[in-house]
Amino acid sequence: MKINELLQALKDVEINCSEEQLNLLNVFMKSTLETNEKFNLTAITKDDEFVEKMIYDSALSLYDLDLTNKSIIDVGTGAGFPGMVIKILKPESKVTLLDSTKKKIDYLLDFAKTNNIEVEGVSSRAEDYARNNREKYDFATARAVSQLNILLELIIPMLKVGGSFIALKGQGYEEEINSSKEAFRRLNCRVQKIYEFELPESHEKRAIIHIVKDKETNKKYPRQYTDIKRQPL
Ligand code: SAH
């Protein structure tokens, strides 16, 4: 997908993007690809593929989501996907970008400063941050970070009651949901909506899963990462 085809592609899925926002997304792509040459940020390095699989794909998380004056944390944001794309397309949201790799957060904060974008950056492991930032966010996102049952334990504690985790998943998401039954039960959350998409050029399948939190999370979650990994919910 060419960058100038992105506007129409987003319009087709009811996601607004102005010319100005498109320019900023383009600057973000160039900056990320340039930084990639110094240290590895993303696996995708060709412009056209980047537009489709990083930017368009990230923007799909905004489908049927009203972020006006809402707080959202992107867990395992890497080089800012979907978090920075969300902030560019919805500047009125309050975005926190979290990743355990400090150089990625430093890169994102540097890019944000240069381009007058207001985001918060946190370099921490999600489970450590979640323990001290409970019931705090309206929304959370995660893309390509971990399997769903593990993500739920990391993310649900950070959400306010009534808040939602917007999970960006690919093919096979149904199995992930099925394997997460115990996690949904213990963490008092449930699947509210699922939106399926197909990327326009590669025809890869995507699912945006809205998971709503119904009750406060028991203080014992999240556990230490070794326990989460060894014995996922
Ligand atoms: N979301 C980005 C990056 C995916 S790669 C994208 O879609 O392109 C996964 C990222 O998650 C890496 O940057 C890694 O540092 C981070 N990560 C993995 N487990 C994490 C954890 N427990 N806490 C914080 N960050 C984590």
Features:
alpha/beta; Rossmann fold; seven-stranded mixed sheet; binds S-adenosyl-L-homocysteine
Please describe what this structure looks like:
This protein is an alpha/beta fold. It has one domain (67-230): Vaccinia Virus protein VP39 (Rossmann fold), CATH 3.40.50. It is built from 10 helices and 7 strands. It has helices spanning 3-12, 19-38, 47-59, 83-89, 102-114, 126-132, 148-155, 173-178, 181-186, 225-230, and strands at residues 71-75, 94-99, 120-123, 137-143, 159-170, 189-198, 205-213. Strands 3-2-1-4-5-7-6 form a 7-stranded mixed beta sheet, with helices on both faces. It is globular, with a radius of gyration of 17 Å. The termini are far apart. S-adenosyl-L-homocysteine binds next to strand 2 and helix 6.
Summarize the structure.
The chain has 233 residues and is an alpha/beta fold. Helices cover 41% and strands 23% of the residues.
Instruction: Determine the CATH topology.
Output: Rossmann fold
Classification by helices and strands: alpha/beta
Helix content: 40-55%
- Strand elements, count: 7
Distance between the termini: 39 Å
Per CATH, the superfamily is: Vaccinia Virus protein VP39
| Distinct helical segment count | 10
In which order are the strands of the major sheet placed?
3-2-1-4-5-7-6
Provide the β-strand percentage band: 15-25%
Order of helices and strands: HHHEHEHEHEHEHHEEH
Shape: globular
CATH class: Alpha Beta
The radius of gyration over CA amounts to: 17 Å
Biggest β-sheet description: 7 strands, mixed
Assigned CATH architecture? 3-Layer(aba) Sandwich
Mean pLDDT: 96
Contiguous runs where pLDDT drops below 50 for at least 5 residues: none
The small molecules bound here are: S-adenosyl-L-homocysteine
Number of domains: 1
